[in-house]
Amino acid sequence: ERTIQQIAAGEVVERPASVVKELVENALDADASRVAVAVEAGGTEGIRVRDDGVGIAADQLEAAVAEHATSKIGTIEDLDRGVSTLGFRGEALYTIGGVSRMTVRSRPRGAETGAEVTIEGGEVGEVRPAGTPEGTTVEVSDLFYNTPARRKFLKRTATEFDHVNTVVTGYALANPDVAVSLEHDGRETFATEGNGDLRSAVLAVYGREVAESMRKVRWTPDGTEVAGIGAGDGDEPVIRVSGLVSHPETTRASREYLTTYVNGRYVTANVLREAVIDAYGGQIAPDRYPFAVLFVEVPPGDVDVNVHPRKLEVRFDREPAVRRAVETATAEALLEHGL
Ligand code: ADP
Ligand code: MG
Predict the structure, then answer these.
(1) If DSSP codes are grouped into helix, strand and coil, which group holds residue 111?
(2) Cα–Cα distance for residue pair 52/49, rounded to 1 Å
(3) What is the pLDDT of residues 82-127, one digit of tens each?
(4) What separation in Å is there between the alpha carbon of 335 and the centre of ligand 1?
(5) CA 309 to ligand 1 center in whole angstroms
(6) H helices of the chain, where?
(7) Mutate which of 5, 22, 26 to test ligand 1's pocket (most atoms within 8 Å of Cβ)?
(8) How crowded is residue 3: how many other Cβ atoms within 10 Å of its Cβ?
(9) Helices first, then strands: H and E counts in the chain
(10) How do beta strands 292-297 and 46-51 pair?
(11) Interface TM-score (ipTM) > 0.90
């Protein structure tokens, strides 16, 4: 049983950033308006994610950390329809608890008191009353303490923190209406305001120079054919693109600032990054890349996101159409720069 749990852990939990991803998704699923992430030593020593979401009732705490525990699927048909919440496998807390020491502390909104439960290497302790604000706090320490082989694969603190930062940044930019903060070894890395404004979130995460260079991308087929993509009548696919892209002079030496979302989900898709880069044409110096925060919407049936629980890669049925839509949208936004 324990072994199965540890093997399963390899699928979901590869490194501290994977733990952070699951915990932040849970917080967002719980309707949080604030999500505070704090990690120690890149997350290898400790991870804490606190939210002000709906919380978990004391009598549900044990179930929440059990195998296949999910409150998010009503029926099996929900799976076919495509669920709107981020997590739906019901295995993240169970799996993380199998390879760490984890405490889940929660007080449901409006409840008088809270409770907590601790799991150490899969061993679930007693549910105890705990003083805690409304919402949920999950603390994970000593990740992989009982799986030395996996612990050995952890990289330097700075590298692990980079991965954590990428994950939290991704969710912060995708959810400008949620105040997301990140702290490393007691120092604040960034904190978004949660005021619903994407540019304000970009300002918090990337700073003023980048935020001011950003131009709005908004492209929706409105009955006219744009770049060969239909209007969405009948069987035609509807592709929508929105977000922000930077002035060609505001660049970095890495592609990692090209952040893309498909149907609200943070993904890495080379086709999207390449489409953005193509739109800039020769306006960017070699080996430099723009900033972009782009939201692409395609019909759910047109995209395969079930590639792997740990991976964020997607495949599109109509990849050329998606590529053209993103390139067109980006090029139009750049026109605002007079470019
Ligand atoms: P999943 O997210 O796939 O349902 P998890 O193992 O991540 O599975 O979480 C199990 C259950 O615990 C969730 O379905 C939810 O009911 C509860 N839960 C976990 N984290 C939170 C949170 N931050 N706030 C409220 N409920 C939570
Ligand atoms: Mg989850």
Answers:
(1) coil
(2) 10
(3) 444 444 467 889 999 999 999 999 999 999 999 999 999 999 999 9
(4) 44
(5) 16
(6) 2-12, 16-29, 58-64, 76-81, 92-98, 148-152, 157-174, 198-206, 208-213, 270-280, 319-335
(7) 26
(8) 9
(9) 11, 18
(10) unpaired
(11) yes
Which residues' Cβ are closer than 6 Å to ligand 1? Answer: 22, 26-27, 30, 51, 53-56, 64, 69-72, 87-94, 136
- Strand (E) or helix (H) holding 315: strand 315-316
What's the mean per-residue pLDDT of the chain?
86
Radius of gyration of the chain (CA): 21
Token pair belonging to 99: 């390879």
CA–CA distance, 312 with 332 (Å, rounded to integer)? 27
Taking residue 63's Cβ as centre, other Cβ atoms within 10 Å add up to 14
Nearest-atom number in ligand 1 for the CA of 95 is 6
Tokens at 230, concatenated: 């239909």
> Which protein residue's CA is at the shortest distance from atom 14 of ligand 1?
70
The mean pLDDT of 9-14, rounded to a whole number, is 70
What are the structure tokens assigned to 225, written together? 């054919």
Does 57 have pLDDT greater than 60?
yes
Give whole-number Cα distances, 59 to 126, 173, 212, 252, in Å.
Answer: 11, 34, 49, 49
Reported as half-sphere exposure (CB side, CA atoms, 13 A), residue 150 has a value of 21
Q: What is the DSSP letter of 33?
A: S
The rounded Å distance from CA 97 to ligand 2 centre is 13
Pair 106, 55: CB distance under 8 Å: yes
Q: Is 113 helix (H, G, I), strand (E, B) or coil?
A: coil
pLDDT digits (tens, 9 = 90+) for 187-210: 999 999 999 999 999 999 999 999
Token digits of residue 199 = 């540019």
Q: Which two tokens mark 116?
A: 């907590």
Q: Which residues pair with 297 in a beta bridge?
A: 240
Task: State pLDDT tens for residues 288-338.
Answer: 999 999 999 998 888 886 655 555 778 898 899 999 999 999 999 998 777
Residue 306 Cα to ligand 2 midpoint, Å, equals: 15
